[in-house]
Amino acid sequence: TIDILTNYATVNAAPVEQLDRVLADEIYCGCDDGVMSELGRLLPAVGLSRYDGQLLARMWMNFRSGESARVCNPSLWAAALIRTFAKVNAIKIGDFEALAGLAGVSAAAVGKAAHRIETALDIWPFDVRFLNEDGFMSYLYSYLHKLTEGLTKEEG
């Protein structure tokens, strides 16, 4: 496995168009719109770590730096961030209906808000900007699976 990783694995860390973006951390005003508080409440309920919370905060700050929309429902946006984060990292956090229920919003509204975040930030699966340890391991395993499939087809 190590031989395969060191000889064949290539990591496309970030697309070129993402490299010159200003990180929201550098321009974030520090104002609390309630979303961070809601994330703090929801994270333990869905089994995410404090480090995951830091990645989610970065995702929110990046989103807010390019969006001028007013935040009317912090619970909705917190649930949408968690849903997007789970998708990026290919982690199971349970039923999205249950997540929406914890946040006190509809699953459809969470889906729409998550799509808005994904579109605004040009998020893709295993996006390195928001990748946690579980996501990194999932990415490696999926890459190794594709690689071994290719080797098997060549042998057969």
What does this molecule look like?
- Helix 6 (74-89) packs across helix 8 (107-121).
- The chain has 156 residues and is mainly α.
- It is built from nine helices and no strands.
- It has helices at 2-8, 16-19, 24-27, 35-46, 50-66, 74-89, 96-103, 107-121, 133-155.
- It starts with a helix and ends with a helix.
Spell out the blueprint of helices and strands.
Elements: H1 2-8, H2 16-19, H3 24-27, H4 35-46, H5 50-66, H6 74-89, H7 96-103, H8 107-121, H9 133-155
Helix pairs in contact: 4-5, 4-6, 6-7, 6-8
Summarize the structure.
This protein has 9 helices and no strands.
How many strands appear in the DSSP assignment?
A: 0
Largest β sheet strand count, sense and barrel closure: none
How large is the radius of gyration?
Answer: 17 Å
Low-confidence stretches: 8-31
- Into which percentage range does the β-strand content fall? under 5%
Average pLDDT score: 80
- Report helical residue fraction: 55-70%
Which keywords apply here?
156 residues; mainly alpha; 9 helices; 68% helix; 0% strand
